[in-house]
Specification:
Length: about 260
């Protein structure tokens, strides 16, 4: 999967056509705004449209905008026009777009993101909380959700030497999802309880063989934005493991969650 920003694409009309295929009137409205160039007039000149793609297939899309459908408000920025095509639903694909926008908003210094919606019980799955109800441009009630930007401090964890057991060694199958095969050793830290009430989970780097016990150094923490537990990244060697390498190795499981890597 790849995330593309609409304004940087060469074949814009092709992607607009794919947006039009969505079974949602708001998506067709977004397509018209992009065709006419009005999107940036209505939503702000720095606003962006992000597409989650798989080669030429459009999986999901949403906007990252200065303004949404709530008039006379200082709240900004907004996530809007959130849509996943039916055949790709159920795997939190839109969560990867929201995660991408979250990290972009954090880099740009915003304290929070906002979502205007007529649905309740959806955006809680992505770490947002209900903030208030406001009138939209049509005078109708809209639920406003807030996704706060977090700044965690794991300095007391990163650098620690820990040891424990591997209950899902490299090459093993997930106990509830047998189609998922672990490309990396996955286990827990002896005696440390995580946010889910179980022992702290770890991904093990520094070996390409199945192991059943380990002792190594915590080199990073993957903080899940929409879950109660974090994952510690433990290295058995002194080789530097890049952010890109870590995120690629753990994506087999973390693709279904929103998260941020702390070093």
């Amino acid at each position: 999967m790849e995330i593309k920003e609409f304004s940087s694409l060469e074949n814009k009309n092709s992607w607009i056509s794919k947006i039009k295929e969505a079974d949602w009137q708001a998506a067709k409205y977004l397509a018209r705004l992009l065709e006419s160039g009005e999107f940036y007039t209505l939503c702000g000149i720095t606003s962006k449209v992000f597409l989650l793609t798989d080669n030429t297939n459009l999986i999901s899309f949403c906007t990252y905008a200065e303004k949404d459908d709530i008039p006379d408000t200082d709240l900004t920025p907004w996530i809007g026009f959130v849509y996943t095509f039916p055949q790709f639903r159920g795997k939190r694909r839109i969560g990867k777009l929201i995660e991408y926008i979250y990290l972009l908003a954090k880099k740009e210094g915003f304290p929070a993101l906002y979502i205007s919606t007529d649905q309740q019980g959806l955006y809680e799955n992505f770490g947002a909380i209900y903030a208030c109800t406001l009138k939209d441009i049509h005078g109708e009630d809209s639920f406003i959700y807030k996704l706060s930007i977090q700044n965690k401090d794991f300095s007391d964890i990163i650098g620690q030497t820990v040891k424990g057991k591997i209950d899902r060694p490299l090459g093993s199958h997930h106990p509830r999802h047998p189609e998922m095969i672990y490309p990396i050793n996955y286990g827990y830290v002896d005696g440390i309880i995580a946010g889910d009430g179980a022992e702290q989970d770890v991904y093990i780097f520094g070996t390409d063989k199945p192991i059943y016990e380990y002792e190594g150094k915590v080199i990073a923490v993957y903080h899940r934005l929409n879950d109660c537990e974090d994952k510690w990244i433990v290295s058995l060697d002194d080789r530097p493991h890049t952010d890109e390498e870590i995120l690629e190795k753990i994506s087999f499981q973390e693709q279904y969650f929103m998260g941020e890597l702390y070093r």
